[in-house]
Amino acid sequence: MEESDHTLGLISSFEAVSQGAPGNRTFHLKAISQRGTATIRVEKEQLNSLIMAFERIFRLIDDQADHHSSNKQSYSDSEVAYKNNNLDLDFKSGNMSLKYDEISSAIELIVFGEVQEDNQSPLLTLLLSQKIAEDFVEAGLEVYGAGRSKCPLCDTLLNPNENHICPRSNGHATALN
């Protein structure tokens, strides 16, 4: 794989954020490192897929830890020379992928831009410690699940300040709590 256009290195803060009213929310990922910041706009389902991918990586790490007791080196951001300093990126993501580096114990998040051509290099690469990634997953699940409530009868998403006439109640509108 080609080198990415931008590398933030080891991330000190990585979080999922949503803005807007339920039903009209926008989602983005905020990454901060010594090299700069990145705001990556994502779809709600991309956020969910990323959370699930991190959970699979955690299981892989646990499985490898059970089978190996190797001497792991921790990653140091000062060991790598970057071509881009003081980054301030804001873009809509396309494909994203994760990989785990056993030697450095870092999880690498590779982000491509919204429009992806054949053999295109990644737009951004981030390195996360397992602790930062675990905190992201925990908080990200709350952000993902904090949307509109569902009708208890038909599972339709309820819009605030709108009456819901549930088909399962035979067309009779009732106040749903």
Please explain how this structure is put together:
It is a single chain. The protein is of the alpha/beta class. The protein folds into two domains: 141 residues, Secreted effector protein pipB2 fold (2-Layer Sandwich), CATH 3.30.2450; 29 residues, no CATH class. It has two helices and six strands, in the order βββαβββα. A six-stranded mixed beta barrel has the order 1-2-3-4-5-6. The longest helix has 24 residues. About 4% of the residues have low confidence.
Task: Please give a handful of descriptors for the protein shown.
Secreted effector protein pipB2 fold; 177 residues; 23% helix; 32% strand; alpha/beta
Q: Please state how the strands of the largest beta sheet are arranged side by side.
A: 1-2-3-4-5-6
Number of domains: 2
Largest sheet entry: 6 strands, mixed, barrel
Strand-residue proportion: 25-35%
The CATH topology name of the largest domain reads: Secreted effector protein pipB2 fold
Span between termini: 51 Å
Q: What shape does the CA trace take?
A: globular
Tally of DSSP β-strands: 6
Low-confidence spans: 77-83
Question: Under the CATH scheme, which architecture of the largest domain would be assigned?
Answer: 2-Layer Sandwich
The H-and-E topology, N to C, reads as EEEHEEEH
Overall pLDDT confidence:
83
| Number of separate helices | 2
Estimated structural class? alpha/beta
- Radius of gyration, in Å, reads 20 Å
State the helicity in percent bands. Answer: 10-25%
- The CATH class of the largest domain turns out to be Alpha Beta
